[in-house]
Design brief:
The longest helix has 24 residues. The protein is built from 5 helices and 2 strands, in the order H-H-H-E-E-H-H. The chain has a two-stranded antiparallel sheet with strand order 1-2. The protein is 50% helix and 3% strand. The chain binds zinc ion. This is SWIM-type domain-containing protein. InterPro entries: Znf_SWIM.
């Protein structure tokens, strides 16, 4: 099951807040929690987004995503194999099992059907 379809992203945000910012406060008051969010979490997140935008830093999943994309590009699709699955490149949906197992919702059918080399793949 893809990670994006679970509550794991929300749980990950709460884990970051719990272990990185309020580790000294087990059960902070609401005003203290708000202060932590406004004065620590949001500026750090803003800095991280600026680094991503200026390409000085990349998310932890970036290299794995690129590797999965390259693997999908370099995989051969057998003749009429793509007829077995419903492939919708506009909504980025495929009915093959690999699509549902991929955490990035990638499969060889979608990548081959789209037939592009996105600019973001050139970024190291
Ligand atoms: Zn597929």
């Amino acid at each position: 099951m893809p990670l994006a379809r679970t509550t794991i992203i929300t749980e990950s945000h709460w884990r970051v807040l719990k272990y990185n910012y309020k580790y000294n406060y087990n059960q902070p008051c609401l005003d203290q929690l708000t202060q932590i969010l406004v004065e620590q979490l949001v500026p750090d997140f803003d800095l991280k987004m600026t680094q991503y935008h200026t390409k000085h830093s990349f998310p932890a999943w970036w290299q794995t995503f690129k590797k999965d994309w390259d693997k999908a590009v370099n995989t051969n699709i057998e003749f009429a194999m793509d007829k077995r699955h419903h492939i919708d490149t506009i909504n980025w949906i495929c009915s093959c099992p690999a699509y549902f197992c991929s955490p990035y919702l990638l499969c060889k059918h979608l990548v081959a059907k789209k037939n592009i080399s996105p600019a973001f793949m050139e970024i190291k």
